[in-house]
Amino acid sequence: MRSKIRNFSFLAFFLGFCAFYGVVGHELSAAETAHWTYEGDHGPAHWGGLDTAYKACDSGTSQSPIDITGATAESLTDITFNYDPNLGIINNGHAVQMDPTRTIVVDGTTYTLLQYHFHSPSEHTVNGKQYDAEAHFVHKDSSGNLAVVGVLIENGDTNSKYSKMWGKLSKIKNSGDETSIPFNTDMTSLLPHGKKTYRYDGSLTTPPCTEGVKWLVMVEPIQMSSKQIKQLQAVHKDNFRPVQALHGRTIKEDND
Ligand SMILES: [Zn+2]
C-alpha cells in the first residue's frame, strides 16, 4: 500500500494543473516517463515495454478496461455523490476555510474528486458493445486508493449539461492548451439518473497501468448529440485502450 501512496502523490499537483476541470484525454499521466500514444510503435500493445515503470501494462492481471459481461447480481450499497455546487464554509478551529471539495462515498469510504476526462470511443464495452464515448471521474481516498466512476456516452439527444464545457473545446485543440470555465453546475447533472453500477477491481487505463483501482461503471449511459461527440473527437479521437483479459476477476452489478 505504501508504494501506491507514493505512486499517486503526483496527483495533488494535478489538481492545480487542471484549470479546465474536465480534462480531455489522458488518464493520469506521470511526468518523466516514456512517451506513449494510442497507435503505432508507442501504442497500447507496446506500453509495457516502453518504460520499466509501465511493466504492469504487460504483466498485470487486473488491468482495465474490460468487456463487462456475465456480471454477478448483488445488493450493493448505492454510491453517495456529494457533487453539489455549493462552497462549504468551515471554522476549522484555526481559520475560516472554504471547502470546494466534491466527494463520493463507496461502502463507507470517502473518495475526493481529483479530475474528470473523456475517451472516445468508450474504453469499457458492455457485452461487446463499444459506446461513442466514456467519461472517467477520478477520485482518491485518504490512503491514496483510487476509485473511478465511468459514464458511458451514447449518440442521442443534445446534452445541455455539457454545453458550457463543450463550448470551450475549440480553445484546447493542442496539447498543453488550457482555458477555464465558470462552473457552478450541480455536477450530479453530468451523471445518468439511475445510479446503479457495475463494479470490479482494475487499473489505470493509461501508463503506468497501476492496479488497485476500484472501478464503478454506471449501468445507464448518458446521451450526447452526434455534433457533441464530433466536437469531443475534434480534440482527441480514438484515445481508448482495448479491453483487457479478466483473469478470473468477478464483476458485480446492482440488482435493486
Ligand atoms: Zn480515463
Descriptive overview:
A hairpin with a 5-residue loop joins strand 11 (133-140) and strand 12 (146-155). Residues 1-26 have low confidence and may be disordered. The protein has one domain (2-28, 50-254): Carbonic Anhydrase II (Roll), CATH 3.10.200.10. The strands form 3 sheets. Strands 1, 3, 4, 7, 8, 11, 12, 13, 14, 15 and 16 form an 11-stranded mixed beta sheet that branches. The protein has a 3-stranded mixed beta sheet with strand order 2-9-10, with no helix packed on it. 13% of the residues lie in helices and 30% in strands. The chain has 256 residues and is α/β, with parallel strands linked by helices. The radius of gyration is 18 Å and the shape is globular. The structure holds zinc ion (ZN). Zinc ion binds next to strand 8. Zinc ion binds at residues 27, 117, 119, 136, 205.
CATH topology: Carbonic Anhydrase II
| Contiguous runs where pLDDT drops below 50 for at least 5 residues | 1-26
Quote the beta fraction.
25-35%
User: Would you identify the CATH architecture?
Assistant: Roll
